[in-house]
Amino acid sequence: MYERENNLSIHTNPFPEILDDTTYNRILKDPNYWISQSLEDKIIQQISLSLDISGILYHVGTEALITNAYDLLPLDDSRIDLVEMIHRLPILIGRLTRAVYLNVKPISDQHFKFVFVYLPEYQEKWYDAVFFQGMLNGLALLFELKEFQIRMTKTKLFGIHVSHKELGEGIQFGSDANEYELEWSDDNLYLSRSHLTKENVSSRHRVMVTSRSETELEEMSIVDVRDVVGKSRELAIENRDLEAAVEVLKSFKQELEKKQHSMAKDLRLAKNIQKGLIPEIIPDWNGIQFWTGFSPMQEVSGDYYDYFPYQTDKLGVAVCDVSGHGVPAAFITALSKMLFSNFKKPKPSETFKLINRELLDLVKQQGYTTCVYLLIHSDYKVSYSIAGHPRPILFRHQTGKAEVCEGDGTFLGMFPDAGDTYRDFYLQLEPGDKLFLYTDGLTEAENDHGHAFGETKLIQLIEENANASIQETVELIMNHHREFTMGTDAMDDITLLGLQLSPKLEEFNVIKSEGDKAYHSKDYPSAVVSYEKAHQILPRELNTQLNYGKALAYSGDFEKAISMLESYNKFKTNHFKSHAILGYCYYQMEQYEKAELEWKKAYSINDSNLSNLYNLAQLYRKLNQKQKMKDVIDKMKHIEFTYLHILPLEKKWESLPNEIN
Questions:
Q1: Strand (E) positions, 412-514?
Q2: Are residue 510 and residue 495 in the same domain, yes or no?
Q3: Which residues span the domain enclosing 451?
Q4: Number of domains present in the structure of the chain
Q5: Which of 144, 409, 475, 649 has its CB surrounded by the most CB atoms within 10 Å?
Q6: What confidence tier does 650 reach under pLDDT thresholds 50, 70, 90?
Q7: Could you write out the three-class secondary structure of 128-170?
């Protein structure tokens, strides 16, 4: 369906970011090919962005039951009725998935309950609900039921992507179980295997016999699975929009596709640019840990968050919400990053005054942004200012209570006299305290009943997870938010930034000090032990990461050192030493191309340090790349002609054989 609706050429993989071409073609060709639940979820979510697939999934469930029912029948010619088939249904579920198993509970002779139990590590998806109900419809179709009712009664989900009336009335959402019911009033039909054949039946083993009697052949008929599936698909087509209307719209669609293709290309470019502007992870700073939840509504977001180091004694953190969406909003987020980087004032209100004036000049009141901006001092005193933005929520570890902080102020970039409204407010962080900054897309989002998520629920979740880490707390809130809004369309970008002063800060400082002492005395194995413990407490503390990586390298644990130093370099610290040591590790692991790349990066960051050029020269000597080695030696001469390693390198260069073109 997706290939047809998007005019894709046959077997052209439309999801290169999700899966490779080989896997995609195997999915198309082999119905028995298994994929992980996480990959299945990514594929379905991607397709559902452009298609309403609920009806398709329902009929896929119906077909799955019909095409697999044959394997549930007795091996001889004995017949079973619908009740017996229902009791065998858990076997089929076990074949189709390893994430869930089925319990069947009879309520009466013609009324059954189906309880789907998920394994602890899996979570129910909205499309599971539609697919399972489609399977029950397949039972009704196979046994030719005319008077029956299928309904969902309970689900752990808090909402479903499709109309609830399609699944049943009075569904208990957020329940402790996932349950369906099937009730019918028809006379029993019996089903058995058959070796009978029909004309043009290519799969003889998929022919079944139905009868109104358990023993006699009265009213016997032959059921070809292919025919039943064909009828099911015909019904699916009939339930879709009128074909005539589709044909009329196709002419408009083709014209729009050309424009959309161009727009999509621009949006992808804007998305990649914005991805570089917004940090994926904020590093730990001075014992404070950060974690973010970020969910843009479109390709590019009007929400923006960032951090700004002030030498070593302060750190600025901002969360902004630009008016509107799409590319214009993304443009203002880019301006915001530039302005916050330029205006690092000692008070947040002063920073706001300057940014407001610059935005007025640049944007000409064609857009504005709300913002909360805070400065964290080395003594954990926090000063902050608010510009038309939701106020922060502070959780006190000592009391276990969360409260909304004070503060107000008007938008940035809209009013010339807005500077008069900005005020500075203060709070003091204690070990274990958490502070949450967020955009209104989080609290104003509504569920399918029109109820907002709200500030009260946010505070409740924060307090209920008092002992969780800041990462666990943010991720739990975002998961609850997704469940709460399931079945609704996103109306705004969503950002949640949480920070916590580590409750183990004192322990961390003692352990890190022990590691630093061992490192400086060149007792690298002891340093590794201490840094490992410190890293477990504050895993994104950059100084610890760097020293830990260097200690691992000097201890000879190159593989683990590579992992630590690569993680450190993701924060774009531009520390030449981290790239130099990483190049050394790759060299020792005989990964020479990567070693060359890292030493070149180190040289580009600090071109006055000749050790990186020396390492490159030794690498080219080992690879017998004589011309490259000469070019590096010439660079070294140009920088410092008296460098003592140049002469020995030249002798080694002369001993190399000439390169063969």
A1: 425-428, 434-438, 494-501
A2: no
A3: 278-503
A4: 3
A5: 409
A6: confident
A7: HHHHHHHHHHHHHHHCCCCCEEEEEEECCCCCCCCCHHHCCCC
* Tokens found for residue 540: 């994104």
Same domain membership, residue 518 and residue 441: no
For 136, 141, 148, 450, the CA distances from 184, given in Å and listed in that order, are: 12, 12, 4, 35
- CA–CA distance, 369 with 158 (Å, rounded to integer): 32
Residue 519 binned pLDDT confidence (cut-offs 50, 70, 90): very high
H and E: helices and strands count for the chain:
22, 17
Task: Please check whether residue 470 is in contact with residue 504, taking contact to mean a CB–CB distance below 8 angstroms.
Answer: no
Residues 496 and 512 in one domain: no
Q: Give the pLDDT band (50/70/90) at residue 210.
A: low
- Answer with the one of 468, 503, 538 that is the final residue of a domain: 503
Q: What is the mean pLDDT of the chain?
A: 84
- What CATH number does residue 301 fall under? 3.60.40.10
Does 346 map to a domain? yes
Q: Let me know whether 356 and 469 are in one domain.
A: yes
496 and 554, same domain (yes or no): no
The answer to whether residues 235 and 86 belong to one domain is yes
Hey, what amino acid is at 10? I
Q: How far apart (Å, rounded) are the C-alpha atoms in residues 505 and 499?
A: 14
Is 415 contained in some domain?
A: yes
413-464 pLDDT, tens digit per residue, is 888 899 999 999 999 999 999 999 999 999 999 988 889 999 999 999 999 9
CA 537 centroid distance within chain = 25
> For residue 204, is pLDDT > 50?
no
Which of 411, 239, 420, 229 is CA-nearest to residue 324? 411
**Residue 93 · residue 102 · CB < 8 Å:** yes
Task: List, for residues 380-411, the tens digit of each pLDDT value.
Answer: 999 999 999 999 999 999 999 999 999 999 99
Residue 46 belongs to some domain of the structure: no
Q: Are residues 487 and 520 both part of a single domain?
A: no
Q: What is the pTM of this model?
A: 0.58
- For residue 5, is it within any domain? no
DSSP per position, 504-551: THHHHHHHHHHHHHHHHTT-HHHHHHHHHHHHHHSTTBHHHHHHHHHH
Q: Could you tell me if 183 and 110 are in contact, meaning their C-beta atoms sit under 8 angstroms apart?
A: yes
DSSP annotation of 660 reads P
Q: What is the band of 280 on the pLDDT scale with cuts at 50, 70, 90?
A: confident
Q: Do the beta carbons of residue 285 and residue 499 sit within 8 Å?
A: no
